[in-house]
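Final report, results section. Input specification for complex C-07:
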Amino acid sequence: MGTIEISEDNLDDFAALLGEDLCEDMKRIYYGGIGAVDDDEKAVGAFVYELLHSESEEDTKSRICMVRSDDKQTADAMHAYYLQTSVKEDEVVESFYELESEEEAKALAEHGFTLEKKEDDVIAVTLGELGQTEVGKKHKFPDYIGNIGDLTILQFRDAVKQILFKGHMGVIEDIAFLSKGWFDAEISACVSSGERVTGLFLIRRTPSGVLIPVLFFAYGPEYRKNLGYMLSYSIQMALRIYPPETVVRISRKSPATRALTEKLIPGRIGSEIFCGSRKEAG
Amino acid sequence: MSARQYVSFAADLAAVLLVIWQLISMRRLPGENTPQRAYFHRLSVVTLIISVLYLLKAYADIQIGGLVPEDFGMLSEADLKAWYAAAVLAWLVDIFLTVVFLFMWITLMCWTLFEDREYLRRRFWVGFMPLIVSAVFTCVCIPLALMSEQGYYVFLVALVVFYIVRTLYFLLSLWLLREYKRQNEYLRFFNPWFFFIPVFAGWVIEDVTGWDFSALGSAIGVVLIYISITRVQRYMDMETEFYNMDFVNFLKGLARKKKYDPHSAMIFMPDSPEERKAFSGILRSQLPKDCEPILCGDGRVVVLTNARHRGPLAMVIEDVQALYEIKADSVLKKKTETAEEFMERVL
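Structure output:
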């Protein structure tokens, strides 16, 4: 049994363990993975993490996304590799996890992580439920609200730049490195004010069909109205294209998003997940 | 000649001279003819026309000797008709120019704060309709005022409504400022209060006392805004239109007062002054708003930004390097650094 770094070259070998969504995420800049292979070079374990704040002024943290292994020896080997490579090289100050699987959480707890339960910041709603909300029922939009498919690459890039320089990153850190094609062009909305794009509502559709809002921001004199228009537009477009059972996963880490989801879907809470952390020796 | 006539004439003359000085000064100002400059020029011209109109009114007031309604019986028919025509024309022009003045100011605010002409185009008819309707109604009532006492009171009511609507539109520009401040930390070299206070004070003094101060208030407002905007020239390198090291001292002063806190910087390293000049236009076209490129003494161009992550910096560097081959780097502020320490390190 040996441990190796999961890269784009060997990603297909671990696809069954990672699942299609995490496989796609592994191609992103801040994701890393350690794989375990048996003597026949068959994948028997995977340890996936995402680096947070590695290129900001904050201390670098590592969010562990998945720990899969056949046995304890494999898990130990992958964990040791994680410590020697990512933690050291990327100067990780703290590792943490938020996982649904109790088994994975316990595997981490055996390596010095704390283990608690909490309500997930991410809630899952269906498209149909969003369509029943007050904002979801609106059908009229001004003609300056459209989808990002109508934007050129330069316009999209400029819009993302303007928003990032205003200090808003959305729910992911690598938005600056993602192309327009990473988002769902038909349901992601934008506000086009003349030559400029002054608002974006970017939604990612994962390979498994889940919709994930990633960035929701507008600026200018009518930014609040435009946020509402973009939300309505995206819900309407999504309902036209996807079935109402389509799952939408909304991260409520920011207070503004939490307030918005509470207004749209009052009383909806996240599921119970396992979480924990560990300070890394610096 | 009464004190009111003296003071009103002097105030209107001062207004005309102030705006003429400002327009001449603006003509001599170097730099591109940006939309902000064009909008500001139009506002200044409208202010000059208003000031000249008020000056002519004040002069006419002095010449006629303060004609009041009881004196009308002493005028010949021809003189009376001429007086009516002049009065109607003066009111019409005054109301028209007030509407144009407000429109120019709100356009300038919109462009300076948001660089969004489309917003104005979209909102023009709906947004300015109350002001236009009120102005038109007041203009229609002007002849009524000269026909009978009842007509005069109808005109007065229409005029008061117009003044209230005018004030509300003035407050609209305060709302624009508030919306801007909700989403942005800094507003440099454009202080709308320098315009609000004198203009509003001029209107109030004139409405309350009858003394002609509105033109002078508008002129002072326009000149103060001009001085506020052109302060930036002091901090610019005219060849490249980058900021100079005096601007750094200005920013450090703001940082000490906790009014400025950059989180990152991009550093561009042109090999020669010629290269610096050649690439300046490209850099300025790729920089988002509120990013200020500073020309350091050693020839580097440093752009201080609010971005807290290297990702957006990498985007800008990539876009600049796609258009022009130049060495570049990015630097993030450390958690333990103050804004001043960061600027010392980077500049």
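Chain A has a mean pLDDT of 92. The radius of gyration of chain A is 20 Å. This concludes the modelling results for the funded period.
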